[in-house]
Amino acid sequence: SNLRQYGYSFSVTDLHTVSPKSDDFKQDLIKFMGVCRVVRGLRSARLGAVGARPNAFNTVRYSEKLLQETGITVLTADLTEMLGPAAKLKNDDVDVKKQLDLIMDYLPTKGVPTESIMRMAKFSSVLKKWMADLDIQATALQCWNSLQTNYGVNVCTLMSMMSETLMPSACEVDITGVVSMYSLQLATGTPSALVDWNNNYGNDPDKCVLFHCGNWAKSFTPDARMEYANILATTLGKENTYGAINGRTPSGPMSFARVSTDDQLGMIRAYVGEGEFTDDELDTFGSRAVIKVPELQDLLKYIVKNGFEHHVAMSGAASSQILSEALGTYMGWEVYHHNA
């Protein structure tokens, strides 16, 4: 009562009365530490938006002003600010060689032209310097089709590498998508990924396919290998789309989250929940997974009716309680906790 009268946000233990020496209280404390990481991280987050949103992706439009009001700063760069300097770098540049080694050590590249990997290394060198200079923790990139047309590669592998090292990177300049990724990462301390709510899985109403073409951190895809982007290659040419990651996520726990700025209502909204990755057969390409979520159809109806984006962030650990508390109680956002 007193905390509410004074206007302080607060959390409560799962049990109304609990011994500070009990395992129950220890779990409450661990959860609250996660809440603190999320709130502290978001209130000082500096995000990089590189390039313009692709025209086909109206769904990922967002409000910088609403984000800034909560402490999230968005810094921008035109794609030419990356491509121009990258094109001028020499193959024997010290940092280019370092980035090249990091790429080659990250995943198998058999069949990928050396020139394509060198272009990725140069782009990575410029991008990472820009991020370091501006103290940027996470990025959202214009990943197609200017990069393929004007530079001749996909940068999915670079985005995967950043996400794997806890610097999440989202596709299609989806800034609120990377806010979602960063939130999950802060909650769990593990990499996150941005995915498409893609398709049904057979006739099971609680299962669906998650897909991107793909840039998931390799924590999600132990069998990851670099290839070309099958879909983009049909129009942009195979030779211009090397750099995509092909891999399948094995069975295990998963959490999902999506943050969105609702400009009409002048507020930030989110949904969070949990499910599981399954080992159901999935014969396709790219970064992919099959998931099972209880009452999935109700969740999808909520997403559609409330105008959320087609992207969702995922992680490989349970975290929905932490996120619901952090985003709702302390960030002051409207949160739907699915199946809670």
Model description:
This protein is of the alpha/beta class and 340 residues long. The chain has a single domain (20-337), classed as L-fucose Isomerase, Chain A, domain 2 (3-Layer(aba) Sandwich), CATH 3.40.275.10. The chain is 38% helix and 25% strand. The chain contains 12 helices and 13 strands. The strands form 2 sheets. It has a 6-stranded antiparallel barrel with strand order 5-6-11-10-9-12, surrounded by 4 helices. Helix 3 links the parallel strand 1 and strand 2 (73-77). The longest helix has 20 residues, at 23-42. The chain is globular, with a radius of gyration of 20 Å.
CATH topology: L-fucose Isomerase, Chain A, domain 2
Count of helical stretches: 12
Number of strands: 13
Helix content: 25-40%
Topology pattern, helix = H, strand = E: HHEHEHHHEHHEHEEEHEEEEHEHE
CATH top level assignment? Alpha Beta
Q: Largest beta sheet: what is the strand line-up?
A: 5-6-11-10-9-12
Q: What portion of the residues fall into strands of 2 or more residues?
A: 15-25%
Short synopsis of the structure:
This protein has 340 residues and is α/β, with parallel strands linked by helices. The protein has helices spanning 2-5, 23-42, 64-69, 80-88, 94-106, 114-133, 146-150, 156-164, 175-188, 230-236, 296-305, 320-330; strands spanning 46-50, 73-77, 138-141, 169-170, 192-201, 204-212, 225-228, 242-248, 252-262, 267-278, 287-292, 311-315, 334-337. Strand 5 and strand 6 form a beta hairpin.
